[in-house]
Amino acid sequence: MSDHFSGPAVMGDPAVDITDFYAFPSPGRPGNLVLIMNVFPLATAQSFFSDVVTHRFRLRPLTRSERGIAAGATEHTIDVRFGDVPEGTAVQKGSIVTSDGREASFVVGEPLEQDGMRVFAGLASDPFFMDVEAALRTDMSGKLSLDTAVNTVEHRDVLSIVVEIPSAPIIQQFGGASLIAAISETVVTRRGNPIRIERVGRPEIKNVIMANSARDPRTKGVELRDLYNHEDAFSLSNVYRPLYETRLDTNLAFWDGLDGKAAWPSGSDGRHPLRDLLIDDFLVLDLSRPFTPGSFLEIERALLANGSHMTAGGRWLDDDILDELLTLMVNGGQGERFGDGVDAPTRPASVSFPYVREPNKRADIPLPAFLRS
Q: What is the DSSP letter of 138?
């Protein structure tokens, strides 16, 4: 389910589990970029942000060529940290530092605007929506079984971090490049080099495309997601990259064949045509384009077709990412649109800051079936 529970390690500490990552131009303030990192699946009013990890956003410029896109070395970072909650209180405080010198302190649950930057952190309605059981049923059976249309995440909450910053300084730092890559991470930074706990670019890379370990003889029975989570998205290990590649090749071929046709014939070496694009696991945005809902994967589809993109790309809160990804994998977007029948979150996003919706605060919802098992 997007990136909720994306490996055994993060399942042991929900406070460091990134459930979703969103990046889009501000709907109401052109020239601003919005980044949202949600953590702590199934959060409650008693949940707090981790005071151990740094919640980090990373941006890099992208260069397009005939072979695809490549991320540059220049980087813009935004670090959000939280303090411990004093005994006897329920108030948590946080701080934000950007690599271009913006700094601010804030209180969880209270929006802040300072120096052209907006920040909000707090409990919110989980904006993700998906029929998780239907996707798992399809993955296990080998047949399209997306007909129950039950939103597994309905009425659930998460802890959300929302940051809105001006785009112009980022474009200037990147030498005028407006096409960028964006990722989110939870890292431990107290001593020496940062230790990455989890990172998220595109949704469902780990939980839909990478999770099943039964098909690839090279990595059969091996849980790769924890290892993949620890990798730098912009510099995968040469030692482990071949394992990720064969897992993606095999599972992408499986999803492609669900309609009985091959939209993406693999090469003689088994390389799947979508592998190189998706293994570069970051959201792709064009900061020169205005806010456009429904543009998830639009830039990637244009790259695959060797054409020009028309939108800002990235990911908006209400984008139906599973339908978009499933249709791309199964038929390349040429024909029937595939989906799980769940087309909207519990509470549609707001077009005003902080964009996420008020929490549901429901305590009467049982664990999803896939977690109980």
A: H
- Residue 21's φ and ψ, nearest 5 degrees, are -135, 130
Q: Can you tell me whether residue 161 is helix, strand or coil? A: strand
Q: Is 291 among the domain residues?
A: yes
- What is the arithmetic mean of pLDDT over 110-129? 96
d(CA 113, CA 95) in angstroms, rounded, equals 13
* Cα angle for residues 344, 349, 354 (degrees, 5° grid): 155
pLDDT at residue number 1: 64
Give one DSSP letter per residue of 175-231, joined into a string: TT--EEEEEEEEEE-SSSS-EEEEEESSTTIIIIIIS--SS-GGGTT---HHHHHHS
Confidence of residue 363 (pLDDT cuts 50, 70, 90): confident
- Angle between helix axes 321-331 and 241-256 (nearest 10 degrees) is 80
Phi, psi of 31 (to 5 degrees): 95, 5
Contact 156, 364 (CB under 8 A): no
Residue pointed to by tokens 């390389």: 271
Q: Strands 32-39 and 18-25, how do they pair?
A: antiparallel
The answer as to whether 337 is a domain residue is yes
The DSSP secondary structure of 63-107, one letter per residue, reads EEETTEEEE-S--EEEEEEE----TT----EEEEEETTS-EEEEE
Two structure tokens written together for 8: 């055994």
Domain that holds residue 290: 8-356
- Give the pair of three-digit tokens for residue 231: 């990798």
Give the DSSP letter of residue 350: P
pTM over 0.85: yes
Query: How many domains would you assign to the chain?
Result: 1
Please report whether residue 165 resides in a domain: yes
Per-residue pLDDT averaged across 120-129, rounded? 96
- Asked if the structure places residue 372 within a domain, the reply is no
37: closest CA among 48, 21, 13, 24? 21
